[in-house]
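I hope you will forgive my troubling you with a question about protein structure. I am sending you one protein, given as its amino acid sequence and as whole-number tokens for its backbone shapes. Thank you for your consideration; the sequence and its tokens are set out here:
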Amino acid sequence: MDAIDKKLLGFLQEDTKRTTKELSLLLNLSVTAVYERIKKLEREGVITKYVALLDRVKLDKSFVVFCHIKLNQHTKDFITTFENEVVKLTEVSECYHVSGDYDYILKVNVKDMEEYREFMVTKLTGLQHIGSTHSSFMIGEVKYTTAFTLN
């Protein structure tokens, strides 16, 4: 991957709806060259998918909770079972296996506290092998991006 690929990826992270013509002007390359570079990055798995970022407020999912999960035990079977179950929960937009006091951090998007309580009572507590949970509620969003710098 060269410097042009990194610039191209930066532009795509900012706005994936830019046309190859717009990108070609930004990169001083032909439209065909930009198209071929994008296809190569897709084939190599550098670009894994394209998504739309949604406005949580307009979709009534603006109550964001970071739920820390501790498992009862750390056997391979318990971890696999938990992970297979948690990915099915539509309220969970992100799940990370982490080190420290807790084993997992979930990012949960719901309408309000009442919907979060319903999620906890009917879905999350039904998952196997959870020892304890700790919830933190988002007060305000300071930075939200999916982009990162390529050096």
